[in-house]
Automatic annotation (TrEMBL):
<dbReference type="InterPro" id="IPR027417">
    <property type="entry name" value="P-loop_NTPase"/>
</dbReference>
<dbReference type="GO" id="GO:0005524">
    <property type="term" value="F:ATP binding"/>
</dbReference>
<protein>
    <submittedName>
        <fullName>Sugar ABC transporter ATP-binding protein</fullName>
    </submittedName>
</protein>
<feature type="domain" description="ABC transporter">
    <location>
        <begin position="12"/>
        <end position="251"/>
    </location>
</feature>
<dbReference type="Pfam" id="PF00005">
    <property type="entry name" value="ABC_tran"/>
</dbReference>
<dbReference type="InterPro" id="IPR003593">
    <property type="entry name" value="AAA+_ATPase"/>
</dbReference>
<dbReference type="InterPro" id="IPR050107">
    <property type="entry name" value="ABC_carbohydrate_import_ATPase"/>
</dbReference>
<dbReference type="InterPro" id="IPR003439">
    <property type="entry name" value="ABC_transporter-like_ATP-bd"/>
</dbReference>
<dbReference type="GO" id="GO:0016887">
    <property type="term" value="F:ATP hydrolysis activity"/>
</dbReference>
<comment type="function">
    <text>Involved in beta-(1--&gt;2)glucan export. Transmembrane domains (TMD) form a pore in the inner membrane and the ATP-binding domain (NBD) is responsible for energy generation.</text>
</comment>
<keyword id="KW-0547">Nucleotide-binding</keyword>
<keyword id="KW-0067">ATP-binding</keyword>
Amino acid sequence: METAGAAGQPVLELTGIGKEFGAIRALHDVDMQVFPGEVVGLMGDNGAGKSTLVKIIAGNFRPTQGEVRFGGNAVHFYRPIDARVVGIEVVYQDLALADNLTAAANVFLGRELKRKFGPFAFLDHNAMAARALELFGELRSETRPHDLVKQMSGGQRQAVAIARTRLSNAKLVMMDEPTAAISVRQVEQVLGLIHRLKEQGVAVMLISHRMPDVFAVCDRVVVMRRGEKRADKSIRDTSPEEVTALITGAKEAA
């Protein structure tokens, strides 16, 4: 399936997306576009529909209504690997890292490089470490391939998770609360990593409750409430106060 987008074409386009779980309507008529090299903040209170929307994009759920287009093509995901194949990666809040392994081993977890000697195959640790070093360099991270994940700071752990998305040459990276429960210095490191992805032309969707982070790094903010999109605005054209009002329902739409 081809997914390369032309200049000015959205990498992701959602049209009329709805999702029902029996009698419960989780999403209703959601339209959204995300462009290459753009960072879009996705905000909303608990139960607003953010997680359901992300899971539809990531292939965990199929929409009840509507169309998903990626790179200009209509796509139908039946499982997360289908979304990953076309270039969609998700960095979940728990990061899904193996603490007892090195940074390089985590980057290549499930995608290990091997060397063959006759009928035998062995893990190519040197090749994986070299490629991981290149990826950390591209992200301007101080993380080193042989560092153990269990000894890393929150910012370094995020670098490992993001490097894993670059291994697959992702076109869209969705990040779920990447700055939750880490120090101020580590928050700056993570926001720097998001800037690196943007510079490389990768689209980023930042799911966050942290208003300062969204306004620091995002180009646009999309606000969800009760399963509906209530706003989709350029960061330049809104304010934390307006976004808060939209999240809480003090303002219905913008």
